[in-house]
Amino acid sequence: MTRKLTLIAAVLAVALSAAAGSALANGGAHAAGSKTISVRDSFFSPKSLTVSKGTTLRFVWAGRLPHNIVGPGTNIGARVRGSVSVRARSGSYICTIHRGMKVSVRVR
């Protein structure tokens, strides 16, 4: 009976290891996560980033001036405080209130 359980445990360990490796190789959801972008007075930080498919962008207001965010599939109204999370899409996210305030995002 002990040999049988040991064999079953070994087979399960190999199967789980293979499944985990496959999920990572295929860009599984666990690889995506979240990235924070600070919305500061007249600039975003960072100014550009590359993220995995399925990543969430978390915009966090950290200045004293109001900012809005317009970008691919995103239209967040002006605010001074708080945070908003959106699904990352490739393209530029801008504040239309402050000319030149932009963050570029690339999704792979």
Specify Rg, calculated over alpha carbons.
21 Å
* CATH superfamily caption of the largest domain: Cupredoxins -  blue copper proteins
**What summary fits the major beta sheet?**
4 strands, mixed
CATH architecture of the largest domain: Sandwich
What is the helix fraction of residues, given as a range?
A: 10-25%
How many structural domains? 2
Order of helices and strands: HEEEEEEEEE
InterPro entries: Cupredoxin
Topology:
Elements: H1 2-25, E1 34-40, E2 43-45, E3 48-51, E4 56-61, E5 67-71, E6 74-79, E7 83-87, E8 91-94, E9 102-107
Parallel strand pairs: 1-4, 3-9
Antiparallel strand pairs: 1-2, 4-7, 5-6, 8-9
Care to describe what's here?
The protein is α/β, with parallel strands linked by helices and 108 residues long. The protein has 2 domains: 1-30; 32-107, Cupredoxins -  blue copper proteins (Immunoglobulin-like, Sandwich), CATH 2.60.40. Helices cover 22% and strands 43% of the residues. The chain contains 1 helix and 9 strands, in the order H-E-E-E-E-E-E-E-E-E. The protein has one helix at residues 2-25, and strands at 34-40, 43-45, 48-51, 56-61, 67-71, 74-79, 83-87, 91-94, 102-107. The strands form 3 sheets. A 4-stranded mixed beta sheet has the order 2-1-4-7, with no helix packed on it. A 3-stranded mixed beta sheet has the order 3-9-8, with no helix packed on it. The chain has a two-stranded antiparallel sheet with strand order 5-6. Strand 8 (91-94) and strand 9 form a beta hairpin. InterPro entries: Cupredoxin.
